[in-house]
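input
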Amino acid sequence: MTFDPGTPPPDAATDDHVLATWLAEAAGGRLLEVRGEGLEGKELKDAGDLAAHDLLMRLLAEHRPDDAVLSEEGKDDKRRLDAKRVWIVDPLDGTREFSEPPRDDWAVHVALWEGGELTAGAVAQPALGETFNTGHPPVVPPSTSPRPRIAVSRSRPPAFVHALAEELDAELVPMGSAGVKVLSVARDLTDAYVHAGGQYEWDSAAPVAVAAAAGLFTSRVDGSPLRYNQEDVYLPDLIVCRPELAERIVAFVQRHGTDA
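output
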């Protein structure tokens, strides 16, 4: 039986923010369905990746047939480099967390790149029933923590972030999914996400689009801009943080590098 994502909102025909949100939520619904099918471990991970990818590719082909797509789970079609519009998607970000019910720190990423910039994006956290998007960016509240909080991978935290935490008198907050970590800053669960050591464009495109729309600082760890739809899709590092922390974090990396 084919999963029915429902009908997109009427505005999705012309509004990329609306379409990105609907796509992320549709893929999230499919993933929740897969999660309830009794699979475990690698079988669950693989089934989730494939199901969400296939659905997103089908829906994009139907609703934006002239656009190119770069997906973590698909073959990289280099024709995207000459395209005016490219959807950059991660059908399931945080496969490990997805395969460990009832964990909720996994996500679906859908972003649109146009003419050198990210112009729309959505990050769904299906297990929370929440989607964050560029059409109605999250309102970032003032920090409720007396000390800065830095989101880090629960399995592979970069070594230099421990030194950065000492510099800022910050605490480290482990969690899964790059998208969840980026959005944790917008949700006042953390104040910064600093990563180095390996990611790809689909890991950060949608979360960065949403974070930037919400007024957060986004950059490479050396302070240079994040660039998407590049021939080499490896984009190993980033900073997403409250603007007031940006100068100190970038200065630390410029002084010490990421081998501290």
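quick obs: The chain has seven helices and ten strands.
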